[in-house]
């Protein structure tokens, strides 16, 4: 059976937000929204949970800190202690003040790069990936709502279309997915 | 970012009757149009200078750093002066993109992209100098903590020079990914406008296949915010560590605890001057007058007054401290700066950095493009002299008077410095013709609240 997709095209993000609220209050599930910039307040309406990326960043940062502590300890205290300018090199703790800069930089390095790599992975962004925005105008000045009819068995298609029309969609397009 | 109510006391940040589509048009025009005659002329000059610099670098590598004017007494000279100057310039980009993002300053949106580009190109120029100064550049990787074949001797984590390796490489790489993360959605806008398949393909690769779905945007905002939060302490740490290259030594004039904040303020000061120099030209050449307005210039000028005054206070504090310390070597170092053989560099620094930025207290000057441009050039020169004064005047009077000497730059010193300016402008010009120079997707979020004629709100 073929799946049907409805695209509601808007030219204003606030109109789209109101329309999304009207649709979801009727029990319609909105699959996705494509927009040229983030629409604030949209995520809870269409059921997108807050991202956990910053938690990841915290753990990457902790990894960086631990790695730096291990590295400075192994290289300058354990493996080859060096007497530099009379600075104490018997224990890591005594030499720690001189290791703060490197520890800080490695923390930032790991947190930032780890987070960006995770971001690219979960967003599936990489050079050569085919963009999947339904309409090229969605990166310019149009806001596009995607509704899959197979996900909305309980609400009739006509009702979805009329709600879209009544709440300010300037265009409604259909696509058959096989 | 949030929905601000349109405040009437503030000047609009976007002039003219713009729509979302018009913003895409205006920012994409330099990429899609043909290069103007002026662009070709400037690009030729910049790339010739860059080539000359590359030639001087090659000569240095082939012959050794004896071709520079450095000598046994003045072991650091133009090389480290240029290094600190370029790194400092880079700081404004991060300040604009990260610190102003955390403070929710909307005026950053028209200028952050090009300021970040400036950061990256400036750090590239900066990094060339310490690498060249190593002499044997082919073993530059020895600064990394790698196991080696000479016994298990490791790098020295107690040394500020090694801290610099970590700080500069972290700063460069994090700035680069921060910049690119912001560029991805804008590349997608450029991609979706292209009719020619080849252009479309190139910008599709650059855009990483961005589609702008709600989930992608939600993650995008999170990653921008966290990167800004990480970059803010990072940028402060970088020039702090650069200043420790000097402050942890026992050279009179260097051995001061004031250095970290003084260097950071100076870095932001010089960076904003360079941003102004570039943007005042760019807004004209690329016809971005509606986006980079006098309002932006005035706000940046206010930061110049603030940081310039901090720098001025730091100079006076240094003088007072050297007198009050009662240490005759410290006192001599400062007396020598002001009245010794390098007096002209000291007074150039004082005039350019302390006096000229104070002119911005006058609203007329602060709100004039031409005056701002001229003062920004003065600040760029003054901040170069500041590093020259710190480095060369402190070194040229060694502990033993028999070692006292002068530093004279050779043609290679000059060639390398001019060359990095060429490299910087070549990269910046290439950027201005191929990348969206304004963060257009971010700018669209503030169109309704800060444009001159908010007719977008038509519902």
Ordered list of secondary-structure elements with their pairings:
The complex is a heterodimer of chains A (178) and B (459).
Chain A: E1 3-10, H1 13-25, E2 32-34, H2 42-45, H3 53-79, H4 92-122, E3 143-148, H5 157-166, E4 171-177
Antiparallel strand pairs in A: 1-3, 1-4, 2-3
Helix pairs in contact in A: 3-4
Chain B: H1 20-32, H2 37-63, H3 78-102, H4 112-133, H5 160-191, H6 197-207, H7 214-247, H8 259-285, H9 294-325, H10 328-339, H11 343-355, H12 363-366, H13 369-396, H14 411-434, H15 440-445, H16 447-450
Helix pairs in contact in B: 2-14, 3-4, 3-7, 3-8, 3-13, 4-5, 4-14, 5-6, 5-7, 7-8, 8-9, 8-13, 9-10, 10-11, 11-13
> How much strand of chain B?
under 5%
Largest interface: A-B, 67 and 74 residues
How far apart lie the N and C ends of chain A?
A: 7 Å
What structural category do the secondary elements of chain B indicate? mainly alpha
Number of helices of chain A: 5
Morphology call of chain B = globular
Q: Give the number of helices of chain B.
A: 16
Number of distinct beta strands of chain B = 0
Write down the overall mean pLDDT of chain A. 87
Helix share, percent of chain A: 40-55%
Mean pLDDT of chain B: 89
Helical content of chain B (DSSP H or I, runs of 4+): 55-70%
How would you classify the helix and strand content of chain A by structural class?
A: alpha+beta
Oligomer: heterodimer
Beta-strand portion of chain A reads: 5-15%
Q: Indicate the low-confidence ranges of chain B by residue numbers.
A: 455-459
Instruction: Give the CA-CA distance, first to last residue of chain B.
Output: 21 Å
Order of helices and strands of chain A: EHEHHHEHE
């Amino acid at each position: 059976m073929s799946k049907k997709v409805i695209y509601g095209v808007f030219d204003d993000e606030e109109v789209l937000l109101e329309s999304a609220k009207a649709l979801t209050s009727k029990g319609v599930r909105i699959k996705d929204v494509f927009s040229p910039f983030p629409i604030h307040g949209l995520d809870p309406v269409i059921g997108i949970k807050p991202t956990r990326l910053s938690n990841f960043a915290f753990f990457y940062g902790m990894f960086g800190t631990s790695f730096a502590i291990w590295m400075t300890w192994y290289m300058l205290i354990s493996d080859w202690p060096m007497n530099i300018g009379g600075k104490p090199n018997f224990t890591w703790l005594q030499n720690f003040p001189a290791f703060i800069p490197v520890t800080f930089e490695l923390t930032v390095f790991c947190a930032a790069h780890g987070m960006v790599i995770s971001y690219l992975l979960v967003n599936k962004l990489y050079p050569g990936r085919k963009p999947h925005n339904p309409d090229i105008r969605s990166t310019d000045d149009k806001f596009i709502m995607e509704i899959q009819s197979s996900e909305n068995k309980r609400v009739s298609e006509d009702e979805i279309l009329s709600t879209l029309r009544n709440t300010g969609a300037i265009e409604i397009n259909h696509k058959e997915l096989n | 970012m949030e929905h601000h109510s349109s405040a009437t006391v503030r000047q609009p940040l976007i002039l003219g009757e713009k729509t979302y589509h018009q913003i895409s048009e205006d920012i994409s025009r330099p990429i899609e149009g043909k290069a103007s005659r002026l662009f070709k002329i400037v690009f030729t000059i910049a790339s010739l200078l860059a080539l000359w610099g590359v030639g001087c670098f090659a000569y240095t590598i082939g012959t050794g750093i004896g071709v520079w004017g450095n000598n046994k007494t003045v072991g650091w000279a133009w090389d480290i002066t240029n290094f600190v100057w370029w790194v400092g310039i880079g700081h404004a980009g991060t300040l604009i993109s990260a610190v102003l993002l955390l403070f929710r300053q909307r005026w950053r949106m028209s200028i952050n992209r090009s300021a970040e580009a400036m950061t990256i190109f400036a750090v590239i120029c900066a990094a060339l100098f310490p690498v060249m100064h190593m002499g044997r550049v082919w073993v530059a990787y020895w600064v990394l903590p790698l196991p080696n074949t000479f016994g298990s001797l490791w790098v020295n984590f107690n040394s500020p020079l090694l801290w610099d390796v970590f700080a500069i490489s972290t700063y460069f790489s994090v700035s680069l990914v921060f910049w690119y993360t912001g560029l991805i959605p804008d590349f997608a806008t450029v991609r979706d406008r292209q009719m020619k398949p080849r252009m479309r393909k190139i910008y599709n690769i650059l855009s990483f296949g961005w589609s702008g779905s709600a989930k992608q945007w939600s993650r995008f905002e999170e990653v921008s915010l966290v990167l800004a939060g990480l970059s803010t302490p990072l940028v402060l740490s970088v020039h702090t560590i650069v200043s420790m290259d000097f402050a942890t030594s026992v050279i009179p004039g260097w051995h001061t605890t004031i250095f970290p904040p003084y260097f950071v303020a100076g870095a932001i000061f010089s960076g904003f001057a360079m941003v102004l120099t570039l943007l005042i030209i760019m807004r004209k050449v690329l016809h971005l007058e509606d986006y980079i307005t006098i309002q932006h210039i005035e706000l940046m000028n206010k930061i110049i007054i603030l940081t310039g005054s901090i720098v001025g206070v730091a100079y006076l504090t240094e003088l007072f401290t050297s007198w009050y310390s009662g240490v005759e070597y410290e006192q001599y170092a400062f007396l020598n700066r002001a009245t010794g053989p390098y007096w002209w560099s000291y007074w150039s620094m004082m005039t350019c950095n302390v006096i000229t930025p104070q002119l911005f207290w006058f609203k007329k000057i602060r709100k004039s493009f031409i005056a701002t441009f001229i003062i920004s050039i003065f600040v760029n020169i003054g901040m170069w002299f500041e590093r020259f004064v710190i480095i060369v005047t402190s070194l040229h009077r060694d502990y033993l008077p028999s070692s006292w000497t002068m530093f004279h730059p050779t043609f290679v010193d000059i060639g390398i410095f001019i060359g990095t300016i060429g490299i910087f402008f070549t990269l910046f010009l290439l950027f201005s013709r191929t990348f969206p120079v304004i963060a257009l997707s971010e700018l669209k979020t503030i169109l309704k609240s800060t444009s001159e004629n908010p007719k977008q709100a038509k519902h």
